[in-house]
């Protein structure tokens, strides 16, 4: 399993554990992976961008409920 696939699976597993009624698609899990990368790289430099991406990711979870 590649690093990206492993990260996607870890995200899907964690969401499934915390929110049993939510199943993420690979595409949505990849969005979360990008958000995590953005947080690591941009949090101190671009907090508004990080906030917007987190908001988009949370909206995707809510849409799945």
Explained architecture:
With 65 residues, this protein is mainly α. It has one domain. It contains three helices and no strands. It has helices at residues 3-18, 26-42, 47-64.
Helix and strand run:
HHH
pLDDT under 50 segments (min length 5)? none
Distance between the termini: 29 Å
Shape: globular
Residue fraction in strands: under 5%
Please describe the biggest sheet, giving its number of strands, its sense, and whether it closes into a barrel.
none
Number of E strands: 0
The number of helical runs is 3
Helix content: over 70%
Structural class determined from secondary elements? mainly alpha
Query: What is the total number of structural domains?
Result: 1
Average pLDDT, to the nearest integer?
82
What Rg, in angstroms, do the CA atoms define?
12 Å
Helix and strand layout, with pairings?
Blueprint: H1 3-18, H2 26-42, H3 47-64
List keywords for this structure.
single chain, 65 residues, mainly alpha, 3 helices, 78% helix, globular
Summarize the structure.
This protein has 65 residues and is mainly alpha-helical. Helices cover 78% and strands 0% of the residues.
């Amino acid at each position: 399993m590649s690093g990206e696939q492993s990260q996607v699976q870890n995200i899907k597993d964690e969401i499934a554990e915390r929110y049993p009624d939510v199943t993420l698609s690979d595409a949505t899990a990849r969005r979360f992976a990008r958000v995590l990368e953005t947080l690591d790289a941009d949090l101190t430099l671009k907090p508004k961008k990080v906030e917007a991406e987190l908001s988009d990711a949370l909206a995707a979870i809510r849409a799945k409920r």
